[in-house]
Structure formats: structure tokens, C-alpha cells
Amino acid sequence: MPPGRLPGEVFRARPTGRRPRGRPRTLSENNCATDQEKPSLNRKTHRYIRTPDKVGCPSRTRKQNSDDCQITLTIIEMEYVLGQRIRCGRERVYRPRQTYLSLSEEECRQKLRLTRQAVTDVCHLLADELGTDAPCPYALPVAVKVTAALYFYASWSFQHPLSTIGGISQSAISSAIHAVTSGLVRHAGKYIKFPITPDSQERTKQAFWINFEILGPGVLGAIDCTHVQLRAPSENALIYINRKGTHSINIQVICDAACKITHVFANYPGSSHDSFILANSAIPAIFEGNPPVDGWLLRDNGYLLKTWLMTPFIMPATAREMFYNRKNKQTRGVIERTFGILKMCFRCLDTSGGTLQYSPQKVAAFFVACCVLHNISMNHGCVDDINEEILQDFRRRDVELHVPMPFNPNTPAAARERRAYLTEELHHL
């Protein structure tokens, strides 16, 4: 019993001062409006809550009334705290988002490698893939995503400094690059077409004949492979090591006389031979189908001689064969020029820009996307010719990765006859 209290004396609250520890609050201390409201202690939160007496609610128990009041007070307190945070929080700051529309025509071609009209066409092409119907005020416009991806292709800048160009975060830059790449790959069949129809084949043959006047009006393209360097993959890294000891993927490309890409096959690692990639592509089925395609491709000695694949003589014995080799090299130089223009415009594909820090699948997608952009730029006439010194540097690096095909005495007789016929035709021109 507390000191100073007589037996049977009723305890009364002190009018002022601090209440004794452990004593419940009085009605006046809790500011109860009526005498029917009595305080109770919540043992979980150690706070006093107001609970109406069961006299006012005869159909409910004291515990039920206490739980309802506790929930009501908790909601009110949460709303109050949330309101305080909203009022005290900082306002959202929006960065200025830069697009190609803020660039001049010269700046657009220098930074994005395309004209403003070409970039507009790309935005219209990818509007369905990049657009969003979500009512979110923070969604990036299509123009911002396309500008960020094109700058990445053209400059091979890492994503962190690249974020300062579009005024968006690094994660948004990464998402934009992959979204634009996926969209361009899905539309690759619209811009990269091998001449299948008779009309398209005739136009391709005439273009080679007019530009080079060699090997007769039957050339449908020049074929070659190029390497794109990447980081060591997490799985099967050994098969991606090329002749120079670096990791890469080997990509097969066919172009026409105007350096326009008509075929891309990017599915094999850097250790794969060019002839192996050709044998597993769709090209043999096109030329050896029923009916077969009337024409042939040009290639160096990295492939086996076929009726539809004209390669040079490995060991030329006559002046006519040497003349044929010289003309063959001159004509198939169009594919080397195509590689030079492609890697000069889109530095992410060239080793001088650094190693791509992505998986082989993503690097292959980047290459196909750049090929689509290359053909779009050619349609708009905004492809600059490559300097001869730069072209020789590209050729030197490709030759270092090139694996020549050894002499094969079992070459088909029909293929040798066609090459001999073309050699004689060149002699009479």
C-alpha cells in the first residue's frame, strides 16, 4: 500500500503534477467527453486508448469496442504521418530530356550517324514497340529512347556518361538500348532482303556489271565474315576465342554492288570457320533449291569452290588465271568496304572503340540492328564514303582473323568448269 494512504481510502487523482508511475490515466487526463468513456492500456503498443463503456453499446463487449477504436486511431495517425511526409518532402526535379529534335542536321549526322528525317523514320518504325499506354508521367518518349540508343551505337560510350546526353538515368539508358535493339531486329526482314525474285536478281546483276564490268552479268553479291569483339562469356568461353586469342563472334554478311547489306547471319562464335557458317546458313538452300538460282556469289579462298560461289585460284598457273584473281579481288572488295563503312559509322562494332561488355546474344543483336540502320541510312543517302587509309586498316585486322581454306582436289567438276568459263570471258573483254 502506498505511503500516506489509509485503509479503505478511495484514491483520487492529483489536480496537478506528474501522476504516479503505473497508475492509469483519469477521465480528466484523457479529455474524455463523457463519463461512459474509460481509458484502457494496450499492452502491445503501451498506449492508452479510449473505449466506450458497454453501457452505451450493450450488444458489444468491451474488447470489441476497444479493437474498433484502436483501428480508427491507427488509421488517423497513419494519415497524419503520411500528410506530414508529403508536405515536408522535396518536390520531384525533372531533368531536361534531350532528343534528336534539339540537334541541327550536322550535329545529328555527327552524333547519331543519321539525318533527322532518318531518325524520324526510325521513331515511326518503333512507335508500337517503344510506346506505352501506362498513365505514368515518368515514361520516356519514343524520341528519347531512340536518341539514346543511336548515340550508343555511334559513339560506343558507356551507359553512365551516356545518361547525360538524354538527361535520363543509367538504368533507363540500358532499358532504352535493349528495347530499340529488339525492335530493329524484329524489323530486320523489312530492310535486309536477299534478291529472290527474278526482278530483284536482275537489278542486282546489272548493278555489279555496270559498276565493275567483270565476271559477267551474273553476280548476286559478295560474301564474307567479320568478327565483333566481346567480353569472355560466362558459358563456353573457349569456343569464342579467335585466332588472335580474343573473344568474338563471327558474323556472315552479303552485300550488293552499292554496299547495301542483303543478308546477315550472326549465330556462331569466333572460333567457327567461315565455310562452316556458310554451310549452316540459308544461302545454300537458296542457290541449290528447285529451281536453282541463276547467279553466283564472290568470295576469297576462305570457302570451297561451288557453282554458285566463285573463289580465286589458290595457285594460279597462267596469266588468265592471275587476271581472274585480280578482278575477283577487285569486285569482292565491295564487302570489305561495307564492313569498313559499317564499323566506322557504328563504333560499338569496332575493336578500336573497346570490347562490348555484353553476352554473345546481345552483341549479335547489336550487329543486326546496326545493319538495319546502315540500310536505312543508305535509303536516305546519308552514308559517307570511307577513307582509303581507314579501309586498309580494317582489312588488315580482318586478315589477321581470316583462316584460308586448304587446297581441295575434290572440288566439283561443274564448279571448276564455270570458273574456267568466266576466266575465258574475262580474257575476251
Give the structural class: alpha/beta
Instruction: Give the averaged pLDDT, no decimals.
Output: 78
The gyration radius over C-alpha positions equals: 38 Å
Order of strands in the sheet with most strands: 5-4-3-6-7
- Major sheet description: 5 strands, mixed
Count of DSSP helices?
Answer: 15
Element order: H for helix, E for strand: EEHHHHHHHHHEEEHHEEHHHH
Between the first and last Cα atoms, what is the distance in angstroms?
128 Å
Estimate the global geometry from the Cα principal axes: elongated
Please give the number of β-strands.
Answer: 7
The fraction of residues in strands falls at 5-15%
The stretches of 5 or more residues where confidence is low (pLDDT under 50) are: 5-14, 26-37, 51-58
Region (Disordered): 1-39
Keywords: Cytoplasm, Hydrolase, Metal-binding, Nuclease, Nucleus
Main location: cytoplasm
GO molecular function, one term: metal ion binding
